[in-house]
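agent> Task received from the user: take the single chain below, predict its 3D structure, and emit structure tokens. No templates, no multimer pairing.
agent> Plan: (1) validate residues, (2) run structure prediction, (3) serialize to tokens, (4) report one or two observations.
agent> Step 1 OK, no nonstandard residues flagged.
tool_call: predict_structure(input=
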Amino acid sequence: MGSLSDYYQIYSWPDDPSSEEGSSYQRRTAQNLGFLFSEQSLDYLWQKNTLRILDVCSGVGTAGALFAKQLAVKRIKSSLTFVDVRPNIFEKTPLLFLDNDPFISWESKVLDMNELENIEGAFDIVLMYGHSLAHFNPWQWVEIVKKISRLLVLGGVLLLHETDRKWLDFIENTYQKVGVSAIKEGRPVFSVYKGYDPYTGFITRDLYDTESGRSHEINVFPWGISEAGAIIMSVLGHVKIAPFDSHDFWLMGYKIA
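)
tool_result: status=success, residues=257
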């Protein structure tokens, strides 16, 4: 099984802020993040002068950067730390900050999510945007949320943006052992079922790029919103789940003790 870098060579993700696809992704992301400012349970955060934000599974940093810019409009300073496992992912991050907004400072760290204990500091917000939870099984997620809890200040919040994969994969779409997972530059990327591990809950699939002939084996966990939220609540103490379109949700985990 290869790395996530190999995976994203096949399964396209709009990580180039200067591309047309990247611009479209930024518009959708800004709209999704804007929903948070209508959530009354988060109002106490917007009363602060500065927010320390840890953006995990950040990719190039689109979500964290846009969130910080929305906060800057409210005259709230942001201290951003981006975390992603891919070594070269941050090469284009400066393109997100060409305006040099004085309300925003940022740094980046190449780390696996299982290495969050290597991050120093305390954060008001941990942001996990972009349906990244499928890369982790429940055993891993419990440990990750514990590490996030240690990084959050009392009253800090985990903001998790997710979809309900049980609904999408097994109810709305009858589970497909062979199917099209994505369209990359006008060509299909096929996904083929390879196996299931009852001990981790991972489903293993192979991705095939029809043009290059490359393939990549990937483990995915079909998270439902309920079990993802239950783990957050069991660790942090409180969770609120807010749907904001047909399949997407914000899970807001509040560290209360």
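agent> Step 4: summary for the user.
Residues 167-219 form one domain.
agent> Done.
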